[in-house]
Amino acid sequence: MKLKDMIDHTLLKAAAKGEEIDKLCSEAVEHGFFAVCVNPYYVLRAVSQLKGTKVKVASVVGFPLGATPTAVKVFETQKAIADGADEIDMVMNVGAFKNGEYSYVQEDFKAVRLAAGKDKILKVIIETCYLDESEIRKATELVLGCGSDFVKTSTGFGTGGAEISDIRTIKEIVGDKIGIKASGGIRDREKALQMIEAGATRIGASASVKIVESGEENEK
Predict the structure, then answer these.
(1) In the CATH scheme, what is the code of domain 3-218?
(2) Of the listed 4, 73, 152, 191, which one is catalytic?
(3) What is the largest CA-CA distance in the chain?
(4) Where are the domains of the chain?
(5) 104: buried, middle or exposed (CB in 10 Å: 19+, 13-18, 0-12)?
(6) Which residue among the candidates 8, 89, 149, 166 is catalytic per the annotation?
């Protein structure tokens, strides 16, 4: 699989304008990225822009803190799916996890899984920058037990993004059972390829065009 086929071309900043979303979508089509990842407000726009293409639309739930109640995450998921989203990237309730409320955390995951439906992709963001290695292992185990399709490292809005060591730790737990999305701070081709070598199967990045154009001769 080529690098371009593993990229979620992402624009989640608060001040993103509609014209920027349109550009995101056109770039995704031009370069053959797997998906675009946008805030819920822009799902309908992205779906319209990408109609008739192979590019998927991903949206975020409980973003970026993960601290909204489960019922709110469920509603967000249902709305995003109704608007045409193909994939949901939800944020773990990090505070509940830190409290040791593991049953709550996993039920939160399961509720969003149910709301998304079996034919949609679910990625759970565990926000690794707030977790030590043992906590990353535990969070990954919870994700693995909820029917999610991916563990995702980061929102990109925390204190740090994806780290090679975190990808390796997650890979030890999930093996080939589910995917791993590395996101946050991936701004060049070298780092993207390092993440893939460590076990990532999807890359979330806003610098996607730069990442692929630096080795575009190998991507065609």
Answers:
(1) 3.20.20.70
(2) 152
(3) 49
(4) 3-218
(5) middle
(6) 89
pLDDT tens-digit profile, the chain (220 residues): 899 999 999 999 999 999 999 999 999 999 999 999 999 999 999 999 999 999 999 999 999 999 999 999 999 999 999 999 999 999 999 999 999 999 999 999 999 999 999 999 999 999 999 999 999 999 999 999 999 999 999 999 999 999 999 999 999 999 999 999 999 999 999 999 999 999 999 999 999 999 999 875 444 4
Give 83: exposed, middle or buried? Use CB within 10 Å, 0-12, 13-18, 19+. Answer: middle
> Taking the CA of residue 202 as centre, how many other CA atoms within 13 Å lie in the half-sphere pointing to its CB?
28
89 is catalytic: yes
**Cβ(93)–Cβ(151) under 8 Å?**
no
